Amino acid sequence: MTEDELQAAKKSSESWYWWGIPAFFRCPWNEDPAQADIALVGVPHSSGNGSTERDQHLGPRAVRHQSGFYRRSHFVHGFAPWDVARIHDLGDVPLPEAMNNEACVRDIEDFFARLDASGTRPVSIGGDHSITGPIIKAIAGPGRKTADGKPVALIHFDAHTDSYDNMPHWLGAKRSAAHWAAYTVKEDAVDAARSVQIGMRGHPAGAIHAGGVGGSSRALGYRVITMQEFEEIGIKGALEIIRQRVGDGPAYITFDLDSLDPSVAPGVSNLEPGFGGFSIREATRLLQGLMGLNIIGGDVVCLMPTKDSPNQITAQVAMVMMFELITLIAGTKRKG
């Protein structure tokens, strides 16, 4: 076999998910952020949420394996994101002190600050939800390039608000999966007045205090759409609220897989089985309805491969959510 024949054989094999070294969506592996418009990053972190199982660090590996088979053109939006943007797998954030949440949060922010300096927009797969805080801190707020030095509007899909403000730490983790939505507001990385949290549900841990479910978030300025309200206003009503609130400014999307119904995503770290979550159709239509917003980054979190079904359906759902985020950011570039 000549070199030309070898390269032709490799080219003909690239479309098959079982061939080659796994990368997100069969993208080129290139660790230089300056070479990418959209950077796909694994964040294998699981020490920010010690109250549940802690295998979220296995999420990036699972999605790499699953995403190789996914089709590459978006049916609803009518284009392939890979055709309009340079999209590379940058690998995983190195976390040498993996059991130390505060050290990991520091290292995650430092890693994504490199992306901010290069001008690439990240789409990440975690990892527990504590990863979102340092990612946002790295790309939004004073001195950050991606958001033009402004705080970002947060579009937050979750069963929980993650805005605990009444305790200094979560089992020792200070910038934890339970705190990030509060400290990013206080540190001028998130503009709560332009932000929406959607999908909150479940029985409270104790007595319902002033403000009800989501009271701590509302005190910070967030608009909270509980699952109960979503069932009343529907996809159209929710999108109207989100789009009006976010406006034309920079926005960041974080998608916690526990916002989905457990029948759709059983392999997550904070199941809420007593209340129905989003169906896959509702979740994808909500994300697709955000096309045209200035999305500067996004993440998918709380995948627990060790709790997933034999066909890895939750990893596949995480792949779908990641693809929707990639397409939204590519749509921003396509729009110019």
Can you put this structure into words, describing what you see?
It is a single chain. The chain has 336 residues and is α/β, with parallel strands linked by helices. The chain has a single domain (35-335), classed as Ureohydrolase domain (Arginase, Chain A), CATH 3.40.800.10. The chain contains ten helices and eight strands. The protein has helices at 3-13, 59-67, 81-84, 101-118, 132-139, 180-186, 215-220, 227-246, 280-288, 313-335, and strands at residues 38-43, 87-92, 121-126, 153-157, 196-200, 223-226, 250-256, 294-301. Strands 2-1-3-8-7-4-5-6 form an eight-stranded parallel sheet, with helices on both faces. It is globular. The N and C termini lie far apart (44 Å). 52% of the residues are buried.
What are the secondary-structure elements, in order, as H or E?
Answer: HEHHEHEHEHEHEHEHEH
The count of β-strands is 8
The fraction of residues assigned to DSSP E strands is 5-15%
Identify the CATH class.
Alpha Beta
The CATH architecture designation is 3-Layer(aba) Sandwich
- What characterizes the major β-sheet? 8 strands, parallel
Strand order of the largest sheet: 2-1-3-8-7-4-5-6
Q: Report the radius of gyration as a whole number of Å.
A: 19 Å
Q: Write out the CATH superfamily name.
A: Ureohydrolase domain
Instruction: Please report the number of helical segments.
Output: 10
CATH topology: Arginase, Chain A
**pLDDT averaged residue by residue:** 92
Spans of 5+ residues with little confidence (pLDDT < 50)?
none
Structural domain tally: 1
Shape: globular
| Category by helix and strand content | alpha/beta
Distance between the termini: 44 Å
Q: Helical amount among residues, as a percent range?
A: 25-40%
